[in-house]
């Protein structure tokens, strides 16, 4: 019954009522079940590292000049930490950005 209560779209109250249980009891069982399931997942997960990835290079004739300029100019970075927000447009010096973000920690 707990597995059924964990299914998306299932009304726990209706399920409890149909089986003659107090809804609060089924909610508690479901919460305890989820905590146990999360404890089982909290280990290492297998990862594969691929070192020989073939790269695809498009000929320069196929790249439009305006798009090539836009990518070299950079983009927009927006970082929100608590109530502070840092928004950076265009190309950014990595060391300057690192210094600004480090100042947000303190």
Report the portion of residues in β strands: 5-15%
Strand order of the largest sheet: 1-2
Helix coverage percent: 40-55%
Number of domains: 2
Q: Which series of helices and strands comes N to C? A: HHHHEEH
> What structural class do helix, strand and pairing data support?
alpha+beta
What is the number of helices?
Answer: 5
CA-atom Rg in angstroms: 26 Å
Please describe the biggest sheet, giving its number of strands, its sense, and whether it closes into a barrel.
2 strands, antiparallel
Oligomer: single chain
Shape: elongated
Summarize model confidence as the mean pLDDT: 74
Extended strand count: 2
Q: Uncertain regions: pLDDT < 50 for 5+ in a row? A: 67-72
Span of the ends, CA to CA: 49 Å
Question: Can you describe what's shown?
Answer:
With 106 residues, the protein is of the alpha+beta class. It folds into two domains: 40 residues, no CATH class; 46 residues, no CATH class. Helix content is 49%, strand content 13%. The protein has five helices and two strands. The protein has a two-stranded antiparallel sheet. Helix 2 packs across helix 3. The protein is elongated.
């Amino acid at each position: 019954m707990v597995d059924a209560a964990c299914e998306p779209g299932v009304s726990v109250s209706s399920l409890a009522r149909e089986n003659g249980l107090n809804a609060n009891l089924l909610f508690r069982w479901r919460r305890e079940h989820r905590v146990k399931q999360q404890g089982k997942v909290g280990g290492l997960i297998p990862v594969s590292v691929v070192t020989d990835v073939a790269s695809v290079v498009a000929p320069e004739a196929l790249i439009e000049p305006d798009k090539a300029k836009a990518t070299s100019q950079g983009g927009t970075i927006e970082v929100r930490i608590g109530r502070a927000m840092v928004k950076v447009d265009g190309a950014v010096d990595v060391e300057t950005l690192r210094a600004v973000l480090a100042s947000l920690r303190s």
